[in-house]
Each structure stands twice: as C-alpha cells, then as structure tokens.
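Chain A, query sequence.
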Amino acid sequence: MVQNQRERILRAVVDVASLAGYGPMSVEDIISTAGVSRRTFYDHFPNKESAFLVAYDESVTRLQGAMIDVFQAEGSIIERATAAVTVLVDGLAADPAMAEMCVVEVLGAGAEAVARRDRSMRELSELIATGAKQARGGEGMPPMTSETIAGGIHEVIYARVLRGELEELREAVPELVYALFLPYAGIEGAQAAHDAAVEFRAKQRAADAAAEAEQSAAPQS
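Chain A, predicted structure.
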C-alpha cells in the first residue's frame, strides 16, 4: 500500500510536470492527480522539489540501466551501440511525459536538478568513451569528443521532445549511430555503422513482430 502510494505520487509528478511545467506545478496538483491525501504526500516527500528529483533519478536510472545492459551483451560494437541507442529512443518515445520531464523540465527545476542532469550526461559520455575504446577507434582522441557526441545526441532529442516528434526519432536511430561513430571511425566507418544499424533494426523489428504473433496465437487461459 505504502509503496503503491509512493509510485502513484512519482507518476503524478511526471505527468503534471510534463503538462503544467515544473514551475507552476504544485503539491495540490500532484496529490489530485495521484489520488492521495496531502498528508500521504508529506509522509513520503518534504516538498515538490524532492518528489521531482526522485522521479527524475528513478526514470534516468531505469533508462541508463537498460542501455548498459544491452551494451554489455554479446555482439559487435555496432550492434551493441545500436541496441543502446534504440533502448534510449524507444524508452523516451514510449513515455512522452517522462521524456518531457527528463529532457526539458529538468532544466528549470533548480540547481540540484540541473546538477543531476549534468551527472547523467557525464555518465552517457563515459559510456560512449568506453565504446570507443572497445572499438579501438578512440585512441588519441581528445576526452571532450565523447562529451560533444553526448551533447549532440541530447540536443537532437531535446528538439524532438519540444516538437512532439519522438515517434519520428525511432526512425532516426541509424542516423544517431552514424553520428556516434563519425568522430572515431571517419565517414566510411560511420556509413558502415549506419548501414549495419539499419539491418540490425530490421532484424529486431522482425523478431518483435514474430514474438507478438506467437503471443497472440497462444491459447488464452
């Protein structure tokens, strides 16, 4: 019961922040959306900022954890990079409210929220740098290279969130993979990564469609 109330509050923070914006969002908005009492809210969180920070941290942790899992799986560096980018984009597209909160509203939620956003960007940069080393294309590259790539990907996502084009971003995964590999592998290497990403995505979608068809055909208990 207590855990369920906490989850409802955090989900309400995501939904209200994405619709109203962090600034106008009030505790009253949150408890009304969550269907809990004011006392219940304050049993869990001292204020709206605290609730927002927890909602942000948990959302980012889930996304980053899923990205790391697929990146550390078996496969070529291109397949694993494509899988990680896919997890990021699909995760955001599947929950536009969460994307709005984590990508846009966090920037106006105070100094601590911005600091946590910067930390998540550093972690993305470190993941990119790790991939570059594994691909043996990152030797001698300035450390800021991975930061620049992470920042560029973020800006692409930020613009799509603002324009409500997250579904379209799913189709751009191979282009993001191209941008990811370009500084390390050059134009030819980046194009090869792009083409491999297109093929990987096609196989992935075929596998997902087959799994869905199999599930639909299974007898219902």
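The mean pLDDT is 92. The chain has one domain: 57-215.
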